[in-house]
Amino acid sequence: MPAAADSLHNAAMAASHILPPPPERVWRLPAPLPPWPPQAVAGEPGAQAGTAAGAAGGSQAGGSWRSLPSELLAVLQRRGHRDAEAIEGLLDPPAAPAADRHFPDLRKAVARLVAACRSGEAVAVCGDYDADGMTSTALLVGVLGRLGADPRAAIPSRRDDGYGLNAAMVERLAAEGIALLITVDNGVAAREALDCAAALGVEVILTDHHTLPPVLPPHLALLHPAVTPPGSPYRGLAGVGLAFVLARALSRALRSADGEAMARDLFCIGTIADMAPLQGVNRRWLLDGLPQLACTRLEGLRALLRIAGVSEDDGVDAGTVGFQLAPRINAVGRLGDPLLVVELLTTQDPARALELARRCDALNRQRRDLCDAIEAEALALLEADGSGRAPFLLLAQNHWHHGVIGIVAARLMERFERPVALLADEGDGRLRASVRAPRGFAVDEALQHCADLLERHGGHPAAGGFTVRAANLAMLQARLEAHAEHWLLSSGGVLAVEPEAQLRLGRIDREFWEQLRRLEPFGIAHPAPLFWSGGCRVLQQRRLRGGHLQLDLEQDGERRRAIGWRWPDSEPLPEQVDVAFRLRRDRWQGEERIQLELAAVRAGGCGEVVLLRSGRAYRCRRRGDEVVIRNAAGEERSGRPGDASQDPGLRRLLEEAALALGMTH
Ligand SMILES: [Mn+2]
């Protein structure tokens, strides 16, 4: 129905002109840094040995922190990596400690699975329909199959069953003769289903990373981050990470390098797709596993990479997984049958793999069209009732698809910087919602606050979901708006731009890019650094198709190109701007360039900054390598930032002014 789709797009275009622009963003520059390297550490006798050991352990040339540019050291210092040892630990994390010392039940689980593999026993692997659940199911099905067992994947239906294992599934599996069941990415909350398993004599290995309930369901073995010792590097594992721990131990027990390689490839995909924190063993294993992905032996991954247009020369990094592979896998769980992904990621037949990868790709295109259509409808609704300024955006349409409303809620949340709930019909006079909120607004708390109006609810601070009776909807909306209004008033409600270090445009080159790449992979808990640069001249500004903004910027005679994705419509930019940005590599017609990816732009470059201290305003400007500070009475003081002979108050002011004026990182 192209006509309908067109009219929706027109509605979106109209809406984007009439809806108020997002609020002006406040910039919060970081605090000035203590001198680097920290005097105390550099002067200590142990520091030398530590650095030398780090350098010796470093795998590549220039493998120590010393070759990192000062801007990157500033970022790491501000993220809490305060000394050479901590930075070496990030660049080249220690190997994962022995897993059986962190998971008390691991040996028991492996022993049971070794027996199953040796006897060709049928084993059920019960996963879930999100990316983590599907990849962990594929991981164990693939490895168990290659090691001699007879694995069967069992995943509940998003539409009919809801999340997690249920008793009907267990009964069906037991009737098929299954006596051993492994849960992945779910299970600790499946009390009823696992009581049923116990009654039927089915043994259960639980692997899960969801919050442990006070009473655990019956089980043979439990692998869960919460059972590891405090501070364990295994604490950040997603469901797929726990499946990997189990599969790796099993592969080693049975001396199968093939099983371990397959498990490692799927660990990388699932961990990034599930947005697990990229710390601890997650970081170590991704550093080991990502470089291998481009030449994976898994036919399904090869087919997906081919469909996504990624060649072996491109290499596969966290971005490729997050933006190319994960959406194609996720789309199946949202719109189709998750067993398609399990077959894709376990098949050894290249032709079948290509066929299944094409189906994933088609579902992903369908997913994108659905999201665009729902977004356009949502914008039209907001425009029609003038609620674009409401503190909490709640929108409901019966025909919206449950599987994708979360994605659209996230887009609207970014656009309006407000909490957003999108609801779709669930039948029986009920609606089901996906909620997304900006940093600072706690979704789980807000839903708890409305619990008396909800049938079901759950989530964490950034995202959640609930089911509500249509009859309660108006009351719920009023309650959530009041709650969000209180948050807006108390927090200012504006998301601040918080760059982590100053980076002059002239510093952006291939060498800097290569050094930046040493901090990869970037993702949750370790994002790509946000830089800023002050006083850039806008040589050209262009609107690209799709609502993107392209800028040609100049600073100190150096020119760089910047791109702002889905940039809000606004007045043309002034001639001088400050930009906050991340770096990205752009490949176009065989040429490679390092570009700025804009996060925020503000008018800037007047050569003067105003600092407010205890209600007083100080105007600061640069003079050579000194800063000149003028108070309200017109009195001036000047000095060099970092000069230890200044009095502490003035020294602090000088350092902050130097940072804001772009004289330091
Ligand atoms: Mn998960």
Write the layout of secondary structure elements.
Elements: H1 2-18, H2 39-43, H3 45-57, H4 70-78, H5 84-91, H6 106-119, E1 122-126, H7 131-146, E2 150-154, H8 167-175, E3 180-183, H9 191-199, E4 203-207, E5 221-223, H10 239-253, H11 257-273, H12 280-293, H13 299-307, H14 318-335, H15 339-346, H16 350-384, E6 393-396, H17 405-416, E7 420-427, E8 430-436, H18 443-449, E9 454-459, E10 463-469, H19 473-491, E11 501-502, H20 510-517, E12 531-544, E13 548-555, E14 558-564, E15 576-588, E16 591-603, E17 608-613, E18 616-623, E19 626-630, E20 636-639, H21 648-660
Parallel strand pairs: 1-2, 1-3, 3-4, 4-5, 6-7, 11-12, 14-16
Antiparallel strand pairs: 7-8, 8-10, 9-10, 12-13, 12-15, 13-14, 15-16, 17-18, 18-19, 19-20
Helix pairs in contact: 1-16, 3-5, 6-10, 7-10, 7-11, 7-15, 8-9, 10-11, 11-12, 11-14, 13-16, 14-16, 15-16, 16-17
Manganese (II) ion binds at residues 132, 185, 209, 238-239, 274.
